[in-house]
Amino acid sequence: NSYRIASIPGDGIGPEVVSATIQVIQKLAKTLGTFDIDFEHIPWGTEYYKQTGRYVSEDYLDSIRQYDAILFGAVGSPDVPDHISLWGLLLALRGPLQLYANVRPVRTFPGTKSPLNTATDGIDWMLVRENSEGEYAGQGGRSHVGQQWEAATEVALFTRVGIERIMRFAFETAQSRPRKLLTVVTKSNSMRNGMVLWDEVAASVAQDFADVKWDKMLVDAMTARMVAKPQSIDTVVGTNLHMDILSDLAAALAGSIGVAPSSNLDPTRKSPSIFEPVHGSAFDIIGKAVANPVATFWSAAEMLVWIGEKDAAAQLMGCVERVCAAGILTPDLGGSSDTQGVVDAVCLEVEKL
Amino acid sequence: NSYRIASIPGDGIGPEVVSATIQVIQKLAKTLGTFDIDFEHIPWGTEYYKQTGRYVSEDYLDSIRQYDAILFGAVGSPDVPDHISLWGLLLALRGPLQLYANVRPVRTFPGTKSPLNTATDGIDWMLVRENSEGEYAGQGGRSHVGQQWEAATEVALFTRVGIERIMRFAFETAQSRPRKLLTVVTKSNSMRNGMVLWDEVAASVAQDFADVKWDKMLVDAMTARMVAKPQSIDTVVGTNLHMDILSDLAAALAGSIGVAPSSNLDPTRKSPSIFEPVHGSAFDIIGKAVANPVATFWSAAEMLVWIGEKDAAAQLMGCVERVCAAGILTPDLGGSSDTQGVVDAVCLEVEKL
Ligand SMILES: CC(C)[C@H](C(=O)O)[C@@H](O)C(=O)O
Ligand SMILES: CC(C)[C@H](C(=O)O)[C@@H](O)C(=O)O
């Protein structure tokens, strides 16, 4: 079992957490001896943009398709407006590669603690985000720029195909979990078109999943439920923007955004999927060697599951959890270790496998 | 000082909390003797719709303009799709009356407690929501309905005028508070038109408020900040949808959505402003006589401030806080009182003034 992985470290602390993760994965591959994995460095990001005027190469979609998966760090730099950098790189991949399912497991991790007194037993949610359309369809414009009567639009575009495929994916995800609960998040009281279509598609897809218990929730009320009744939640599905917001909230409620992983999946497997930490480029701590690599470790474990190395992924997560439980943590989690300290500790655990 | 107030109890528990509030306000007016206030009942809502086919009367905008303010209960019924009822009544008022500033004070109230261990000193935020455009502009549509290739849009519309007026209002609000901090929430990394315009207008309006310390925050990251660093937040401004979401979250983090008030203001005072609890029609507890009236009391106090009875408002809030602090609370706050029990207790406090 041999895999070719594109590594796109990108900007900010991206290179730090990606290189930390590659060390750990290579140690794992060597120790287990059951697979090998080749990481090919791809230099896309803000430096590349400064040199070439583009965030990615001209044939980027073709060139990226040859890989089994993509390990992504972060994109965004204080030197470039965020909407340029993000649409230049990350959003230029998610939509065009039809990575329509963004999966974000959120749970209270060893070494972290939920700040909620309503969640003393911790949190264990699976968030499914539509990742190819909706509020991120990229449509809209500005007219009369600079005039007092300037008007601008942001157009959220929803298709029946787009909703149906993510809804089916979400019901299957819920079905695979012990509690088999799904909450469909919308805002169909104030948004009368695409959001009502979401409701209709949810009701129709639900008929194929009699064993999944599902409910609907407005996105505003959902935040209050996450705070007040975290145990009532299992799997959640929603639009690109709604789940962008709810997944950051979820990670914070579970204890830390520094451990939260994210998979951008093409469930049809025509395109390579992207695995990335939820945190961003975090320019405030760049170069200080304290970036928390756990979210990227966890993202890489999700990648291993996706490419077919489920056992290796479970072993890796076991090692990471033991290290975190032992208190070997970066400062954002209240620890005193640096990035390399966490890497070394995980590698030591891997050697014991 | 004589005021004419339109009372629109609406649906669900709306009539219960509005009638509770009218009792208390009338007692206050009688006790203080400094103003009087006439509440005129307006029957708009789902029953009205069932009888007339409309949620409001045909000349509703003209007829409502004769009042000094509007006390609103709730709208929404299990019998009617939410997008019909809300656009039929509440959203038919907010936009057309140009009630562009939705103001939502959020603080840990006597009798409530933040569920966050990061907020042991409680929460005290002022949320300002753009209330006339954006994601609630009402634009968009569906094509190829029912076909596999169906597509639907939700169009968020932003105008320079709309952004400028709410931004100015928010900076003034921040300026009037002791800490003078303002956070401008956007999502200008993924939304490149109206959201970038928000950023531009914020930077330009800020120049007129040198004494306000302001920062920008992406809506997703803002949720994490609200959870992890609640003390870092004072006044917040954002779009119609973003603040819809953040204000529910804020109320839950502060301790309860059952006490959260909301003012829909026309700062130019051409239209009467609407004062309403944040909670909705809550059909699950209708008729059980346990609806929490505190959010509507607080909304009415905001109304008194707005029409010019600042002292009366402060007296009222003092009474309500003493009652809550004494543990006379409805079941949603862990108490054992019913709605009328809370009303009677507040009226007793008012008598002592
Ligand atoms: C970086 C940004 C474009 C991105 C998003 O909004 O999707 C991020 O917040 C995320 O959640 O992956
Ligand atoms: C009832 C609904 C339309 C409304 C909104 O979304 O604005 C409510 O959630 C609110 O916050 O006032």
Automatic annotation (TrEMBL), chains A, B:
GO molecular function, one term: oxidoreductase activity, acting on the CH-OH group of donors, NAD or NADP as acceptor
SMART domains associated with the record: Iso_dh
Coiled coil spans: none
Domain Isopropylmalate dehydrogenase-like as annotated: residue spans: 4-346
Pfam families: Iso_dh (PF00180)
Family per record: Belongs to the isocitrate and isopropylmalate dehydrogenases family.
Name this protein carries in UniProt: Isopropylmalate dehydrogenase-like domain-containing protein
